[in-house]
Amino acid sequence: MKIIIQRVSEAAVTIEDIVRGKIGAGLLLLVGVSPEDGQEDIDYAVRKISQMRIFSDENDKMNLSVQDIKGEILSISQFTLFADTKKGNRPAFTGAAKPELASQLYDQFNGGLAAFVPVQTGIFGADMKVSLVNDGPVTIVLDTKNR
Question: Which of 39, 71, 89, 116 has the fewest beta carbons closer than 10 A?
Answer without folding.
Answer: 89
